[in-house]
Specification:
Shape: globular
Distance between the termini: 47 Å
CATH architecture: 3-Layer(aba) Sandwich
Strand order of the largest sheet: 2-1-3-4
Number of strands: 4
Largest sheet: 4 strands, parallel
Radius of gyration: 19 Å
CATH class: Alpha Beta
Protein name: Sulfotransferase domain-containing protein
Oligomer: single chain
Organism: Aliigemmobacter aestuarii
Number of domains: 1
GO molecular function, one term: sulfotransferase activity
Pfam family, one: Sulfotransfer_1
CATH topology: Rossmann fold
Length: about 280
């Protein structure tokens, strides 16, 4: 068996947990990075910030992350290295590998087809995963992440800074490309078969039924001791003002509506929290 997990998002919807869960099994090796940021840097002008410049790479010389970032740098300059690198992980004795990069949610159909063809030409059994979360909760978590590691902001200031970040950014292109799930789903379904595709939801991801779906799709046994593992969680210290929450939910109403049509379970997973 030679399986490749292509994670397309969404950011703040459980992808780090999934990477940790799958990576805990014998014979699964994702390499030195969770997010390789190859195809977004190459193909999406909105995400050029992920390009590793020669200058940035040079600044990391001698630091622990140098070799991992050099791999990203080299793949961005020669995409042929992408499939061959992961092929090498399989040849080392593993059966599953992959790249879970949430900003791939914005990739266009042509780029997704290119990735598919490169991997399938190498003989990979491709498994595409796209996790979603209540759109309001996702953007609120993303806003909190903006300031989480900023030492210039005190704990008292962070509460207001988080609210300001949310209000200023929820309509931004960077937030929309990660939250307009219906647009990403449409592109996924133009390129990949239903058998290759896993759609999941943060709100019920950490449950035994979800692990059973993961078992069936990825081919790993249920490991329910992982349900209590929290990875990359941003602490929520304050509630968003009701008026702002209502504005955000209204702005993303097309996402709620499209998902309710395609995934009826979101009517109960998400709707009770709507303002």
């Amino acid at each position: 068996m030679k399986r490749f997990v292509l994670g397309l998002g969404a950011q703040k919807a459980g992808t780090t947990w999934l990477h940790s869960y799958l990576g805990s099994f014998d014979g699964v090796d994702f390499g030195p990075l969770k997010e390789y940021h190859v195809w977004d840097a190459i193909a999406d002008p909105r995400l050029k910030g992920f390009v590793v410049s020669d200058e940035r790479l040079a600044s990391l010389a001698g630091k622990p992350q140098y070799h991992a970032i050099k791999l990203r740098h080299d793949m961005q300059r020669d995409p042929n290295l992408y499939a061959s690198f992961f092929d090498g992980l399989i040849e080392a004795g593993n059966w599953m590998t992959g790249d879970i990069t949430p900003s791939y949610a914005g990739l266009d159909v042509a780029t997704l087809r290119d990735i598919r063809d490169r991997l399938e030409d190498r003989g990979f059994d491709l498994r595409v995963v796209y996790l979603m979360r209540d759109p309001f909760e996702r953007v609120w978590s993303m806003a909190r992440m903006q300031n989480r590691d900023n030492p210039a902001i005190s704990d008292d200031e962070r509460v207001l800074a988080d609210i300001r970040a949310l209000e200023n950014l929820y309509k931004s292109e960077q937030y929309r490309l990660r939250t307009e799930y219906h647009r990403t789903i449409e592109r996924i379904e133009q390129v990949f078969t239903p058998e290759q595709t896993f759609f999941g939801f943060y709100e019920d991801l950490f449950t035994v039924p979800s692990l059973e779906r993961i078992e069936a799709f990825f081919g790993v046994p249920v490991k329910d001791d992982h349900l209590s593992v929290q990875v990359n969680v941003s602490e929520k210290k304050v509630d968003v003002p009701e008026k702002l929450e209502r504005k955000i939910r209204t702005f993303y109403a097309p996402v709620y509506d499209a998902c309710a049509q395609k995934f009826p379970q979101t009517r109960t997973l998400w709707v009770p929290n709507r303002a």
